[in-house]
Amino acid sequence: MSLKKICSNQPEDFSFNEKNKIIAKEILKNYPKDKKKSAVMPYLSLAQKQNDNWIPLAAMKYIAKELSMPYINVYEVATFYSMYNLAPVGKYFIQVCTTSPCLIRGADKLTKICREKVSDKENEISENGKCSWVEVECLGACINAPMMQVNNDYYEDLDEKNTSKIIDSLMEDKPLKPGSYRGRKNSSPEQKLENLSKENNA
Length: 202
Ligand code: FES
What we know:
The structure is a single chain. This protein has 7 helices and 5 strands, in the order H-H-H-H-E-H-H-E-E-E-H-E. By secondary structure, it is of the alpha/beta class. The protein has 2 domains: about 20-80, Arc Repressor Mutant, subunit A (Orthogonal Bundle), CATH 1.10.10; about 90-180, Glutaredoxin. The radius of gyration is 20 Å and the shape is globular. The N and C termini lie far apart (about 45 Å). The mean pLDDT is about 95. The structure holds FE2/S2 (inorganic) cluster (FES). The site of FE2/S2 (inorganic) cluster has 11 residues, from helix 5.
């Protein structure tokens, strides 16, 4: 598991763009007026989305002001959760799950391919700027292990061959389709469904 590092090259200012100001207003409606700070996580996600998938310190300060809460509290949340990036990432941000179920099923081969094709180090953007990768804890798709998340998509049931092809496609900016690479529908069995099909099972 890699450590999160704050980018040393920080923009001076940040504010939500006009579209996100409207979205932020809508988010606030989900919380009581005197509990504005409850919106800190969706606000951080919105800032990350607006800022090419990473959150600068200026955005944390802006959010603190918007939600009338101490900056340190926003900083604590942003630095605690692995879903928030605190430094720039590649256009395709690859998160490889290396928790036990995925590791048993070969996640180490996936990280090896990332090292070879993207960058030798985690959190380092590839030379062409297209990809960066990181090891993460369980992404909740253990039944489709091993798997990786690329931006908002899951690539599942992977092996060395198809992972290699997927990473190549990302590096070429022509991403292959996400989903199961053994043809499964979500987490359904690979074989034909037979439960309850025979009388003695009914
Ligand atoms: S262990 Fe990899 S998704 Fe759960």
